[in-house]
Amino acid sequence: MKKIQAINSPSPHKLNTPLVFTNGEKLYKKLAKTYVAHKKGFFILAPSGSWKTYFIQHQKIKHWLDGDELWQLTGAHPACAWWTMGLDVIHEVDQRSDVITAQAKKLGFWIIGASNFWLKPDAIVIPPWHIQKKYICLREKDHYDGGATSKDYKQVLSHRKEIMQYAKQGVPKFESIDEAAQFLNKKNK
C-alpha cells in the first residue's frame, strides 16, 4: 500500500514531544487524492487483531482509511509502542486520536481503528474471541505490522470490554469489519 507522506506534521515523534494544533488542509487534501472523501464521515472502532489492516489493504476502491495511518501522519500517535506504556499514556494518545478522527469525519473520511477515548463511533466490531486470537497469531507469525500479540491477550480482552460499552449506548455491533463497512455504506446512500 502506498503511504502518504506527512506535510508539516510532527510525526514521527517521541512520546514526550510537545504538540500544537496546526493547519492540516494540505495533509487532508493529499489524503483525498488516495482515499474517497464522502459527504458524511464514519468511524468503525475495533480492537487490535480484528483484521482491520487486511480489510483496508484489500479494498478495490479506497473508501476506508486505516486509523493508524491517519493518527501517525497527524502526530496523534507517537513513533513508539505507546499501547504498552500504561493507561495514562494510552488515554493521552487515544484522546489525541479522537480529535483527529472527529476532524477527518467532518471532511468525509471513513476511518477504521482501535484508538478511542470519548468519540462515539458509528459502528463497533467485536469478532468472536477464537477468531480474533487466530488473527493475532497469524499476524504475529506471518506479517507482523504492529499491534497486539499473543502475549497481550489480557489487554485485548480489556479493550473489547471497553468497546462493548458503546453497544449499550446504541452503537451498532458487528462480528467483522466487512459487516460493519457494508452497513455504513448502505447508511451512506
Level-2 CATH architecture: 3-Layer(aba) Sandwich
Ends: how far apart?
A: 27 Å
Total beta strand runs? 5
Residue share in helix: 40-55%
Radius of gyration based on Cα positions? 16 Å
Helical run tally: 7
The CATH topology is given as Rossmann fold
Largest sheet entry:
5 strands, parallel
Count of separate structural domains: 1
Sheet/helix structural class: alpha/beta
Helices and strands, in order, run as: HEHEHHEEHHEH
* Text of the CATH class: Alpha Beta
Q: Mean of residue pLDDT?
A: 87
What is this entry, summarized?
Helices cover 46% and strands 8% of the residues.
Offer a few descriptive terms.
5 strands; five-stranded parallel beta sheet; alpha/beta; 46% helix; disordered N terminus; Rossmann fold; 189 residues
Provide structural commentary:
By secondary structure, the protein is α/β, with parallel strands linked by helices. The chain has a single domain (25-188), classed as Rossmann fold, CATH 3.40.50. 46% of the residues lie in helices and 8% in strands. It has helices at residues 25-34, 52-57, 67-74, 87-106, 129-142, 153-168, 177-188; strands at 42-45, 64-66, 110-113, 123-125, 173-174. The protein has a 5-stranded parallel beta sheet, with helices on both faces. The longest helix has 20 residues, at 87-106. The radius of gyration is 16 Å and the shape is globular. It starts with 24 loop residues before the first helix and ends with a helix. Mean pLDDT is 87; it is low at 1-11.
